[in-house]
């Protein structure tokens, strides 16, 4: 038996259990947003104003923002109200920018420069303005503005930008990638292109150009030079690091606890800390096999290339659990190429 819109909304208002509320909310959106999006938004905004589950008033903000179209002025008053409510301010910022556009700048700058506001909300206002205007107010800062410190708020720049009339910036150039990702020739290049296509799907969801992630990039020459001085690498892995160096890449899989974080050339040497050497003192770890190079980890469980077993330009990959008292390695893939094939689902 199908549920009417009014009955679905009534059930939402009557629900007192947070988990069941979430299910009802998702069902309401899925069932009715396509037919009457505005009615769904109206119901959710009303709940955000007066619903009995206080924590869900805030959680609904992302759903509301997702349903509202850019520049849809009808909902601007709701977001103008929401940024005045402490529990809703953080996400209300994005809603106001989405509906009011540039006209939101003065209000958000006033919020950002108000010392009495929580730092997280001031930082969020600056971060959102940066993303919308393509101005680099968020450069070299954490992707999550909740981690920004008061001294990192670029208020002087923000106010100067306001005096200049809010000009749009140039944004951030995407990382430099090797041409073979678009036009692969060899079997290994085709494998890298397949991996990059998987990462591209995740890049579309990550909308923070100041903190790029899930990229395979061309490594800095100085990093490659330092690595080549320290280790003799299999040709396949050396090529991988030079032309397809992972930039904040963590790949999911049934074999992993948190996902396999593959190290890029910029971090490879430092990441040996805690394994090959003590990260605090710099002393060599006596129990670490010298031939193993850590190329990634899953929740601190190392994945390593065996540099003593290089054949045909490649080497096997071993893994072990950390915190077991001693390292007990087992082979995970017969080669680095085999590891990538596992990660891409290509046998």
UniProtKB/TrEMBL annotation:
InterPro entries: Knr4/Smi1-like_dom, Knr4/Smi1-like_sf. Residues 230-340 form the Knr4/Smi1-like domain. It comes from the Bacteria. This is Knr4/Smi1-like domain-containing protein. It comes from Chitinophaga flava.
């Amino acid at each position: 038996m199908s549920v009417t819109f009014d009955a679905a909304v009534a059930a939402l208002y009557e629900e007192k259990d947070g988990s069941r509320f979430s299910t009802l909310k998702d069902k309401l959106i899925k069932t009715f947003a396509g037919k009457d999006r505005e009615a769904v938004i109206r119901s959710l905004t009303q709940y955000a104003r007066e619903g009995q589950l206080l924590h869900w008033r805030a959680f609904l903000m992302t759903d509301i923002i997702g349903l509202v179209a850019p520049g849809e002025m009808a909902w601007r008053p709701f977001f103008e109200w929401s940024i005045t409510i402490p529990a809703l301010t953080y996400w209300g910022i994005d809603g106001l920018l989405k509906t009011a556009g540039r006209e939101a700048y003065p209000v958000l700058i006033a919020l950002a420069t108000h010392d009495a506001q929580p730092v997280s909300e001031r930082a969020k206002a600056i971060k959102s303005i940066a993303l919308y205007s393509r101005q680099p107010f968020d450069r070299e800062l954490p992707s999550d503005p909740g981690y920004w410190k008061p001294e990192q708020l670029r208020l002087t720049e923000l106010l100067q930008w306001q005096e200049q009339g809010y000009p749009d910036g140039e944004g951030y150039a995407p990382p430099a990638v090797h041409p073979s990702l678009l036009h692969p020739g060899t079997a290994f290049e085709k494998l890298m292109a397949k991996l990059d296509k998987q990462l591209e799907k995740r890049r579309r969801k990550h909308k923070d150009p100041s903190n790029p992630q899930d990229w395979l990039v061309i490594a800095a020459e100085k990093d490659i030079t330092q690595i080549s001085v320290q280790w003799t690498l299999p040709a396949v892995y050396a090529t991988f690091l030079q032309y397809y160096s992972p930039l904040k890449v963590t790949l999911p899989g049934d074999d992993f606890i948190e996902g396999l974080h593959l190290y890029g050339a910029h971090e490879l040497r430092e990441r040996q800390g805690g394994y090959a050497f003590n990260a605090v003192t710099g002393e060599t770890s006596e129990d670490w096999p010298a031939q193993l190079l850590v190329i990634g980890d899953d929740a601190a469980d190392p994945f390593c290339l065996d540099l003593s077993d290089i054949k045909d330009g490649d080497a096997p990959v071993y893994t072990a659990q950390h915190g077991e008292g001693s390292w007990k390695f087992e082979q995970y893939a017969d080669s680095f190429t085999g590891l990538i094939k596992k990660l891409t689902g290509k046998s």
